[in-house]
Amino acid sequence: MTTSERPACAPLTHWDRARLVPTRRQLALAVTLAVAGAVAINPITMNPFVEILGETLFVGMVLLFGFIVAGAWRQTLLPRWVAQVLAIGLGAALSPLVVQMLSVHGDFSAFIGSPHNVRGYVLVTFGAAIVGTLFALGALYRERDAQARAEALQFALERETLQRQATDAQLHLMTAQIEPHFLLNTLANVQQLVESGSPRAAPVFRSLIAYLRAAMPQLHQRTATLGDEERLVRAYLELMLMRMPDRLTFTVEIEPALRALPFPQMGLLTLVENAIRHGIDPACDGGRIEVGARRDAGGELCLWVADTGVGLSEGTGTGTGLRNLRERLQVFFGPGAIVALLALVPHGVRAEIRAAPAAA
């Protein structure tokens, strides 16, 4: 590929331009160290303080420039930190020499022949080398520490993203396991009416179609709420009421303030379906179902489905549906989420969900 064929968005450069601009902190520190150095060597020299300050400021800026340029140069001969330390050493040796040569108008023999100038050069060079090296090492340490924190933060963010994706995948898998069970049970109810020749088969079938049209989009929502679940439960119970109008009554009471809370799809519906299948259907006289949700005094979310059906029997609560629901709730709300089954007097079952509500 020729130079003219290279993408315009990726120009070749030997410099990291982001590193070529010193930060305010670096400039302030260089000036502070220059002033401190001038104050420290002023009693040793015979030069005016302003002259010494000018020299240390010049040296400090040269060292800072060398440090920045060495850090921005994209070369492969040396590690970047080695190049920066060498640049500090070179700057500490040359910049005081430049100042001394200016003071003697470029006469190197005059510089060598003046013990005062040589002593000043040695003092400034030695001090600049030590202070500049410490400055460089400190800056490199802070940069490395900041890079380590950034990498740790990035790792934590990636881990959280992966955990969230795994949680979402697990929730969708569990929902997919429930949907066929729910749909097959509902269609079986319609089949019973058709096979028995009931005149109510057609109205129930129409109600089922209307229910599925309204409910199916909600089953696949990624951000379902308790209000969505309430509408789904009402539609299901109204469908069951058409199937057995003389054997079923129900109420659904969800506190309005809770309807916007995130809630796993079909969580309440699973309990309602169990109440119909294991409580109301086997009962000779049918029964009543009460569905509700509130927040208790401690802020915990409490939902329940109570029925006046046949009550608890051996093996109740060990089925796939309830086990799946418990796992989904713990994935969604955390390990503190529970599903409890309580016997009612004289007969019936109250299924309760307790969990700390997820953030809306």
In short:
The chain has 360 residues and is an alpha+beta fold.
In words, what does this structure look like?
This protein has 360 residues and is an alpha+beta fold. It folds into two domains: 14-157, no CATH class; 198-355, Histidine kinase-like ATPase, C-terminal domain (Heat Shock Protein 90), CATH 3.30.565.10. The protein is 60% helix and 10% strand. It contains nine helices and five strands; from the N terminus they run αααααααβαββαββ. It has helices spanning 24-41, 49-72, 80-103, 108-112, 115-195, 201-219, 226-243, 267-280, 320-333, and strands at residues 248-254, 287-295, 301-307, 338-343, 349-355. The protein has a five-stranded mixed sheet with strand order 1-2-3-5-4, with helices on one face. α2 packs antiparallel against α3 and α5 (115-195) runs antiparallel to α9. The longest helix has 81 residues, at 115-195.
Task: Summarize the helices and strands and which ones pair or pack.
Layout: H1 24-41, H2 49-72, H3 80-103, H4 108-112, H5 115-195, H6 201-219, H7 226-243, E1 248-254, H8 267-280, E2 287-295, E3 301-307, H9 320-333, E4 338-343, E5 349-355
Parallel strand pairs: 1-2
Antiparallel strand pairs: 2-3, 3-5, 4-5
Helix pairs in contact: 1-2, 2-3, 2-5, 3-5, 5-6, 5-9, 6-7, 7-8, 8-9
Provide mean pLDDT, rounded.
79
Number of helices, counting only DSSP H or I runs of 4 residues or more: 9
CATH classification, class level of the largest domain: Alpha Beta
Q: Tell me what the CATH architecture of the largest domain is.
A: 2-Layer Sandwich
- What is the first-to-last residue Cα distance? 54 Å
